[in-house]
Structure formats: C-alpha cells, structure tokens
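Researcher: Let's walk through a ligand-bound prediction step by step. First, I give you the protein sequence. Second, the SMILES string for zinc ion. Third, you return the three-dimensional complex as structure tokens. Ready?
Model: Ready.
Researcher: Here are steps one and two:
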Amino acid sequence: MILCRLLFECYQDTQLAAAEEAIGLYLAALRDQGQIQGREFATLMEEGGFEAHVLCPEPRSLHPDFASHQVQQAERGLHQAGLLAPKVKVLGQELFSDETDPCATPDGLIFFTSFLHTCSPIRCAKHFAPVPLYRLPSLSNGDQKQLIHWQEDWQACDQLQMNGSVLQHAATQEISNLDSDLSRRGRKLAQRLAEQVARPVYYYLYRLGGTSLAEEKNRRCPGCGGHWLLAEPWHGLFDFCCPQCQLVSNLSWDWRD
Ligand SMILES: [Zn+2]
Ligand SMILES: [Zn+2]
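Model: Step three, the predicted complex:
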C-alpha cells in the first residue's frame, strides 16, 4: 500500500468544527469506496489548512476517475465548509502491507480477509494479491460500503476467536459455517460480484476443530457434499476448493502442519 498526504487548504474563513466534520465525511466516503484503507487517519491542523495521512492501494487511488458519487458529494461538502479539494502528495510504499494485485482484469477473485489485514478483502485468484475495490463494480448504492461492512464483521469475529476470551464459539461459527448470517451475506455479495464480472468469485470458509487429520481430509464440501480436497494447497492456504459452489477452505488449523 501507498502512504499519501492530503492537504486541505482553506479558501475562506473556516469554522474548525465545520471543517473537521467535512474532512471526516470526505475520508469516510473515500474509505467506503476502497480508495483509502484502514481506520485511523492521522490529521493535523496546519497554517492555512489541514493535513491527513492515508493509506491507498495504489499511487493513483485518489484520482477523481475512481470517485463514487458519495465521494463527489463529500467533496462539495468540503467547499461548503470553506476548504478546497485536497492536494495529494504520494509519500511512498508502506513497508508492512500487502502489494496490490497487478492484473488489469483478474481471471477470478477470492473473498478473503483476516483480523491482520487492512487491505481489500477481494483478492486475485491467480496472484492472491488484494484488488482495489474501486476497480470492481459497485455492490452497494454506488460505492463498496456493503463489502467493507462485511469485512469489518469478518475481522471482528476473527479477532474474537483469536483472542479466545469472549464470544469465541459464536464468532468462530460465523466465519466457518456456510449458513451463518455472515457467510450468507458474504456469499450473496460474492455471487452478485461474480454475475457482474462474469468470472468465478470464491468465498473462504474458516475451519477449526475436528477430531482427527484423517477425518478432516475426508471433509466434504458443505455446499454440495462433493469431494473438494486438493492435491496441493492453493496459495499455500486453501486445502479445499469446490469450483461448483465457489467455496474454498483450509484443513482445520488444529490439524494442519
Ligand atoms: Zn492478479
Ligand atoms: Zn460444492
């Protein structure tokens, strides 16, 4: 990911509260479109304006071509608060984040996230690299808010099951079971995306527990009941894949090497 600085200059007398609110709404709209990622955007007041630091998937992520109508509307909100549209300075590659997928049009996609990832929850099936959400058709009302909410819920469940102190069982069920509310929501989004891009979109089901390695290897696809164990793990992570149901999963983390 790329670290960028946004400079919001005041062009008329600006009330601090109005400027803060307009910048907050603008950053939220960029986030809902996948143009910036993460949750915390360090923002400073400078002489003559404000400065926010954001993480973007690519150097061009903040180009107006990628703006949703919500981003455009939030930009008008900046003007009403006495601020100009921000000037963007690309500061450089952030060291500890995933590199964005190089494909112009990936052959297939995978819904995958974890509590550790701030990048896009949609990955290229070939490179397993995150695909910027603004490059995909909108699955919400013009932006990608529904996908981002699904990702936040998945990450929250993953965090609870990793910490193991509260709600561990319920959280694990949400990310593991085909019929959980979270999986149903995520798969609906994956199916809608697959229709729009006319390519396969796989959905990842987490797997923990089980009674033995042999039994885990015999696990059947929860969608169709078919065999889905792969000879070699796909991307070193997915031991199971059902092309028909467009599901992937891992050998239980309790039994995996
Ligand atoms: Zn790719
Ligand atoms: Zn299946």
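Researcher: And what stands out?
Model: Residues 101-103, 106, 124, 126-127, 129 surround zinc ion (ligand 1) (CB under 6 Å). The radius of gyration is 20 Å.
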